[in-house]
Amino acid sequence: MRFPILGAAAALLFAPGAARAQAPADEHAIVVPANSENWTPAPAVLPAGARLAVVEGDPSKPGSYTMRLWMPDGYRIPPHFHSAPEHVTVLKGTFLVGMGDQFDGSKLSPLAPGSFGMIPPGMHHFAQAKGEVVIQLHGTGPWTLTYVNPADAPGAARK
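^ that's the sequence the OP posted. Answer follows.
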């Protein structure tokens, strides 16, 4: 008894003209060949010296985005947090990440190329590049970065 029902269901799924999810007419595939990114200076919320390439979406607006961040050797991002989950994949170099309210080199964990991490919203963390590093960030925007200590923000008034 089960086989005729399963067979009928399969016939409906694979039949020409069967109801299928359709992509809206304005959607298109996004393909970014290796080394073809459009690198620009990273946003002012990050310390100077990094470069950013948006490969999909607009991180400043609601919706999905994918971006890549290039960092020189020794580049540091002070303790900060995000308003949405941060998904990170290491593409090149060794990305050092630590958790907490203060930058502490002894708490840095090395992530090699191919490593992935997800940091929940509001979790305080910090990072440093070991060698030239490229990470890929993706999520649902708008992407935000808030420093735990406001004085760590680039351009913050120093006393």
